[in-house]
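About this split. The held-out portion is used to measure sequence recovery: a designer receives only the structure tokens and must propose an amino acid at every position. Recovery is the fraction of positions where the proposal matches the reference. Here is one held-out target exactly as it appears in the evaluation file.
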């Protein structure tokens, strides 16, 4: 089975666990499996956005170590934007979403293996109350 990272945000004293969206090598489109995860995340995020006028969603794009820093910085941003688009398509206002790219500078894993690189190709969700 495929690996999926999770991030935990605290909103109004409650732990909200959101799964990261992982990407194929050099890609920034969501696979069917990742679309499903994006929908599950949306279902957790939407009530919080409706309840909390100041809540922002920070989407953090990440890459593996392949490619130049500039290339990965841009690819990370495209990955974050692809996830942003799924939220907007479901009705989350664009002004509640903030994009960040770490390029290859924020790895979950530092081994030089295919499994490890897969973990690093992702967009993480952070909820900012």
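Reference sequence for scoring:
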């Amino acid at each position: 089975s495929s690996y999926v990272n999770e991030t935990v945000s605290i909103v109004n004293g409650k732990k909200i666990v959101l799964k990261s969206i992982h990407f194929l090598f050099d890609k920034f489109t969501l696979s069917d499996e990742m679309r499903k995860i994006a929908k599950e995340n949306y279902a957790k995020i939407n009530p919080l956005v409706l309840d909390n006028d100041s809540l922002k969603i920070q989407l953090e794009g990440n890459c593996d170590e392949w490619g130049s820093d500039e290339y990965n910085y841009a690819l990370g941003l495209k990955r974050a934007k692809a996830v942003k688009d799924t939220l907007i398509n479901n009705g989350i206002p664009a002004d509640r979403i903030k994009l960040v790219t770490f390029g290859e500078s924020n790895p979950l894993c530092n081994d030089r293996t295919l499994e490890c690189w897969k973990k690093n190709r992702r967009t993480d969700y952070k909820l900012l109350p």
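Annotator remark: The longest strand covers residues 56-62.
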